[in-house]
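$ fold --in a.seq
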Amino acid sequence: MEEQYDNSKNSMPLVSIGMPIYNVCSFIERSLLSVLDQTYDNIEILAVDDCGSDNSMDIVKHLQIEHPRGSAIRIIRHSENKGLGEARNTAIDHASGKYLYFIDSDDYIEPETISIMVPEAEKHHADVVHTVARTVYDKTHRVEHSFPEQPYRVLKGKDAFADFVCQDHRRHVSFTSWNILFSIEFIRKNNLHFYPITCEDILFFYDYYPLVEVAVLMPNVTYNYLKREGSIMDSARGGRIPVKSIKKWFEANRIMLEHSFQYVDRPFYCVHCARMLKQDFRAVCIALRHRKRFDGKLTDKEICQNLRHPSNYAQILKFKRYRLVNLFFKILGSLPVWMCVRLSYIIGKAIRWI
C-alpha cells in the first residue's frame, strides 16, 4: 500500500526517509519511533519491506495505524528478498521529497536530526549534509563516537568536497549512506544507485563523493549506530569464515578500482588511489592470515587481483602526493602471483592487521 503525502500545506520541504526492513523485530519499534517523533514535521517514511520472516512489518503496520503521525509511513513491499542495496534503491525510486535521508532499521536518530540538517541544506543549496554518528553496543550499551568529530564547514565548488575527503589517508567523513541528507535532485541527476552486493555503502560513497559541488559538514551528533555481532570481522576472531562473504568483499573492491580511472585528471586522484589500494591491501592481508578458517577455496589469483592499480607507471610518476605509496602498490600488484601472495603475507603479519 502506498499513501501519497500532501506537501502543499507545509512551507518546509518534504524529506523522504528511507528505511529498509528485514528481520529486525527486536529493533524496529525504537527505530521507527525515532523517525516518527522528529521535531521536523514534513516527512514521509518509506518503509521498504524486504520480505523478512519475522513480525517486523506487523510492528510497522501497528504504528502506521496507532501513532499520531502514522499516516506519514508508506509501506513498499518487494516481491522477494533483494538485499539492503536494492531496498535503498527502492527508496530512491519512490521518494517524493526534496531531500532523502537513509536510516537502518536497527539504528535510531535524535529527535532534532532532520530539523538540524534541512535549514543548512536549504541555506546553501547543498547536495549533501553530513552530521556525526555515535556507536551504541547492543549487549553492553556502551556508547562511543564512531566517526570523526568535525567542525562546521561549508565546502563549495567542483572538487572541494573530494579534496577534503582526500586530503590524506584518514577518514574525514562517514563512508556510510545513512545519516546524510541528500538532495534527491543530486542523486537522480547523477543516476546514483546502490550495488546489490556487500559493501554497498562504501561503493555508493565512492560513486557520489567526486560529484558533490556543495557539502555542509556539521558537528552535531544525530545518529545512533547499533553495533551487533555477526560481521565478517567478528567471524575472523574465531570460528569459520564464509568464503562467499570474502569474495563479495573483493568484488566490491574490484568495482571501486574499475571506477577510479574516470577521475584520473582530478586533483584528488592520487590520494583516492592510495586510499583504496591501502584498503584493498588490508583485505588481502586479512584473507591471507585467516584463509585456513575459510569454509571454501580462495585461490592466490583471486586474492592478488585486488591489488591491481588502475593507473600505469607514467601516470603514477606524475602524482604530486603519495607517489611512493602508489608505486609500491603498483609494483606489488604487478608481481607474479606467488611472489605477491608471499610478500603480502609477510608484510601483513609484520603490521599485524587483523
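$ fold --in b.seq
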Amino acid sequence: MNARVRGWWRRGRWVALGLVLLLVVPPAGSALALRVNYAGDLREGTKTRGKDAIWLGHAWVDGRKKDADLTAFAARIKGTGIRDLYVHAGPLEHDGTLPATRYPRAKWLIETVHRTMPGIRVHAWLGDILATEGPDGLRLENAASRAAVVVSARQILDAGFDGVHFDLEPLHSDDRHYLSLLDDLGELTRARRAPLSVAAHQIDPLPGAHSALGAVSDSEKWWSQEFFGQVARRVDQIAVMSYDTWMPLESLYGGYVAQQTSLALEVTPESTDLLMGLPFFHEDDLGHHESAETVAAAVRGTRLGLGRTDPARERFGVALYVDFAAKEGDWQAYREGWH
C-alpha cells in the first residue's frame, strides 16, 4: 500500500527481468507445489468469525463522503463479518508527526458509525514511506521520529478513533527499530484500551527468500517467519498484505495464499487477530495480475490454510483492500466464499 509502494519495479529493466526469471516464473517444482496446495476440500467451519476488516480511503475523513455514502456503506457490509474499519487518516509526515488538518471529518464519521452501526470499530489508518530503499521517507532508526509517531497515535485516540492501524512500507525483515516502535505504541494503546494493528508484509515462501531478493536488489519484499511472529506478539491485530504476489495464474495465487495463511498461523499467538488480505482492487503489472489475484482464489486459499493449520482458531479473519477500488464481483466473491 502507501500509494502502491513498488520501488523495486521502477528500477532498471535488467533488475525487473531478473526478478521475472527468478521469482515471477517459478520453477516447475514450485509451481506444482502451489497448485497442489490449492487443491483439496474445504474444511467445514472455515468461514468468517465476525472479525473481518476493510481498508477505507481518505475520502471518509476529508469531507468528500456524506451521510448518504455512509448509509449505503452500512447496507453494503450488513450481514458480513466486517467488524473493523481502517480509515486512512494520514499520511504521517516524514518526521512522524500528523497534521490534524488531515482528518477534519473524523468526528462525523466516528460518531455516525457508532450510532448507526453498533459493534463496528473505527481505526485510524496511518502510514508513510520508509527511507529503506531511497533517500526520502520516515527513518525508524531516528528515536525522535519514533517518539513523534507515538505522539501521533495519542493524537488520533484523543480525536475519538477506536484504535490505530499502521502501514509502514517498505519495511525490511528484522528491523529492530520497528519492534521498538511497536513496544512503545503498545504501552500507549494498552493504557487507552485501544487495539493496535499493523499491515504486514508476506512471509518468506522459501527460507531466506527476503535475503536472496535483497542480494540482487535493494528490496526484500518478504519478512522471515520469525520476524512476523515477533511483530504479531506485539500487536492486537496483524493483517497480511497477501496480494501483489507476482503469481501469474489463479491456481498459483490461491496456493500461495494457502501457504501464507499456514505460515502466519504457525507464529501468530492466539491472543492476536490474524487477518489475511483480499485484493479488492484491479491492476495489471509485474506484481499484480488481475486475472490471477482474485478474491475467490484468496478466500479459497485462506480457507485451505486455516483448515490445514488451525481450523478451530477464533481470532482470525480477512481484510478487504480497498473500498474505493472494489467492484461488485469482489463483494459477491467475499460473501459467497467466506460466509
